[in-house]
UniProtKB/TrEMBL annotation:
<dbReference type="InterPro" id="IPR043502">
    <property type="entry name" value="DNA/RNA_pol_sf"/>
</dbReference>
<protein>
    <recommendedName>
        <fullName>Reverse transcriptase domain-containing protein</fullName>
    </recommendedName>
</protein>
<feature type="domain" description="Reverse transcriptase">
    <location>
        <begin position="19"/>
        <end position="66"/>
    </location>
</feature>
<dbReference type="InterPro" id="IPR000477">
    <property type="entry name" value="RT_dom"/>
</dbReference>
<dbReference type="InterPro" id="IPR051320">
    <property type="entry name" value="Viral_Replic_Matur_Polypro"/>
</dbReference>
<dbReference type="Pfam" id="PF00078">
    <property type="entry name" value="RVT_1"/>
</dbReference>
<dbReference type="InterPro" id="IPR043128">
    <property type="entry name" value="Rev_trsase/Diguanyl_cyclase"/>
</dbReference>
Length: 66
């Protein structure tokens, strides 16, 4: 349900649509730990992931066009 009115709708919509997660870690062992922590939090709050859209354990990415 989206709040009505010009003042409340944009922030409410943005909270819903900010659905990208970027996890950066210093090394692979830390990354495993960080990924597990994020997945546990998502699970706790009943969020679901779309596996075909997930890219896990990438060594580099283009982010914000860079």
């Amino acid at each position: 349900v989206l709040a009505q009115g010009l003042k409340n709708s944009p922030p409410s919509f943005q909270r819903i649509m900010s659905d990208d997660i970027l996890i950066y870690s210093g090394n692979f062992d830390q990354h495993l730990q960080h990924v597990n922590q994020v997945l546990a939090i998502l699970n706790k709050h009943k969020f679901q992931l779309n596996p075909p859209k997930c890219e896990i354990f990438r060594t580099s990415i283009d982010y914000l066009g860079h």
